[in-house]
């Protein structure tokens, strides 16, 4: 399960299928050097993205 406190880099490394969700929201996090240090909630805030919607879609993307 993906949480708000996980770093974006950890999410992408652990769940590469989430890249399409990040891209959908304009978060090109796989190219960002800050991804290894920035938690999901902060990154969503910087990009003015609804964290709850993003979190829901990320977790749906990793569901079996």
Write up what this structure looks like.
The chain is mostly helical. The chain has one domain (8-62): Orthogonal Bundle (SP0561-like), CATH 1.10.3910. 50% of the residues lie in helices and 0% in strands. The mean pLDDT is 92.
How does the SSE layout of this entry go?
Blueprint: H1 8-14, H2 19-24, H3 40-46, H4 51-62
- How many domains comprise the coordinates? 1
Q: What's the story with the biggest beta sheet? A: none
Q: Which architecture per CATH?
A: Orthogonal Bundle
Query: What radius of gyration results from the CA coordinates?
Result: 10 Å
Number of strands: 0
What is the CATH C level class, in words?
Answer: Mainly Alpha
Distance separating the two termini: 11 Å
Shape: globular
CATH topology: SP0561-like
Q: Strand fraction band?
A: under 5%
Quick one: CATH superfamily? SP0561-like
Low-confidence runs: none
Number of helices: 4
Structural class: mainly alpha
Instruction: Provide the residue-averaged pLDDT.
Output: 92
Helix content: 40-55%
* SSE order: HHHH
Give a quick summary of the entry.
By secondary structure, the chain is mostly helical. It has helices spanning 8-14, 19-24, 40-46, 51-62. The chain has a single domain (8-62), classed as Orthogonal Bundle (SP0561-like).
Key features?
64 residues, SP0561-like
């Amino acid at each position: 399960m993906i949480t708000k406190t996980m770093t974006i880099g950890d999410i992408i490394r652990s769940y590469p299928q989430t890249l399409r969700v990040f891209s959908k929201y304009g978060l090109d996090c796989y190219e960002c050097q800050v991804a290894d240090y920035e938690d999901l909630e902060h990154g969503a805030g910087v990009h003015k993205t609804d964290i709850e919607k993003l979190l829901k879609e990320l977790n749906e993307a990793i569901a079996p």
